[in-house]
Amino acid sequence: MRRIGYASVAGAALAALLGCAAPREEGEESGPVPGAGNAAAVGGDVAAVERADLAGVFERAGAAGTFVLYDTQDRTSVLVDPGRARERAVPGETFELVTALVALQTGAVSDAGAVVGAGGAAHRDAVERVGRDRLATWVDRFEYGDRDIGAPEDGSGDFWARGPLGVSAVEQTEFLAGLARRELPVDAAHQEALHAATLVEEGAGHTLHGRAACDGGGAPGWWVGWVAAGERTHSFALRLEPGERAAGDCEALGRELLAALDVLPRESGTR
C-alpha cells in the first residue's frame, strides 16, 4: 500500500479545519440538530485535501453524495464535496457499530453479531437492553456526531434512522479511526469483536472492514469502514443523498473511490 501523494493531487490542496467537537463533561446538554441534511458546522484540527476530480465517480453513477478518507497516521483527510462532507445526517444502521460496542461493554449482549448486521429488530432490542440514558452517556463519551439521541417521550424511537441523531461523513471517519486503532474508551476485546463483525475481505497485504446502510427509501445511504495495510490504516465514509440505491451499489461506489485513492487494489474497486 502506498501513501496518497497529496502534493501531486490534481486541484490544489484545500486547507480546512475539521474534526471532533471539544469534549464535554458527562451529562452536559447538547442542542438538538435535525438528522438528514443538516448543514452543521464541524470544527477540529484535521488538515484536508479536496478531490474535486473524483466527483465524476458520483456523476457516472447517477448519484449525489460525498466521500471522506481519513489517514489515521498523518491525521489528514481527502474529501469529495467538502460541503456535503461536513453536513450531518442520520447514521442509519451504521449506528449499529456504536450500539454493539456499548452493549458489549455494559454486558447487554455477549456477541457483536447479535447487533451488527442482525437486522432492525435486533438493533432496537440491543438499544433497549443498554437503556437510553446509558447509551446517551456513551454517545457523548465517543463524541459521536451531535450526540443527541433524543428521549423516548419525544417519540424518537429509531433515532438513528429518523433523528434527532446526526453525524457527518467527517465525524464518521474519526469515530471509525478510533475503532480501527482500538483507541476508543472501551475494552480492547470489544473493539476486536467489532473488527471481526465488520470484516469484508482480506487481500494481499490489506484487510477491508465495512458496514453498509444503503437500502434506499427516504434516508441517506452510507458505506463506512476502514482499510488496514501494514502500518497504515485509512477510515472512510461514503454518504449518498436519499434515494433508491441498494447496499451493493453503495459498496461498489465506495470501492471505486478507495481504488482511485490507491487504498484498495484496482481490481477491488472495479464496478
TrEMBL record:
Q: Which residues form the signal peptide?
A: 1-21
Keyword field contains Ribonucleoprotein: no
Q: Which UniProt keywords apply?
A: Signal
Q: From the Swiss-Prot or TrEMBL record, give the protein name.
A: Class D beta-lactamase
Name its species.
Nocardiopsis changdeensis
